[in-house]
Write a structure and sequence with these properties.
Elements lengths: L10 H21 L7 H25 L3 H22 L5 H5 L3 H8 L14 H12 L13 H29 L1 H24 L1 H12 L9
Helix pairs in contact: 1-2, 1-7, 1-8, 2-3, 2-7, 3-6, 3-7, 7-8, 7-9
Length: about 220
Amino acid sequence: MHEIDFSSVDRANQSRLVLAYRSASLLASVAYHPSGSEEEEIAAAQLCKITSALVGGLAVLAKTKNAYCVAAIARQLVEVEYLMYAFYKGHRAFKEWFQSSKKERLNSWSPRHFYNIPGSPFSKEEYGDHCDFGGHPTPNGVKLTAFSDSECEELFCEALQHVHKIMLYLHKWIAENYPVRGTLETNEWANLGLDFQRFFKEDPTYKSILFRFEKWTLDGQPRK
């Protein structure tokens, strides 16, 4: 990945951009798989390539205050999070996803099939919000096209929550299924994990929206 120019970015946004950049870089390293790798590891690497591209794009768009496109990428990251959770919990297999046909993905892999996974933290309402504010062209999404600093910062912070969960589920899956490789990546993930925890505790925008993201929708209305 190319380095990001932080020259005109405030300190809080610098921290967010560094988190996104480092996450994308770690995902890109996981996407590498040595020759002779198992099918499952190869398939996982392919999803990591996609995710790395999404997170790298997230950083570029956040830096240019393109809130609507940040929201669109966040919706895709939510779908990746669903997949990573299902793979980590053993409800799905990476190679089944990678080898699936378009018809199979429509019938078995769309987000609605992940809401009822036992213990799943996901909801139809959350995914619907992401679709309404960036996943699809809607009147609600228009408000995100004003290149507002505050809206973009809030969306960037929320997207980083999803990035963190993706990285967490991925690391746990690697540690359980490929312990040697997992050991090699432990230090890098541990350092990144600490930076995420610092972000959760110290980022002023994240702290200001924490309650709303737990109990409120993106337009400020309580969930039904």
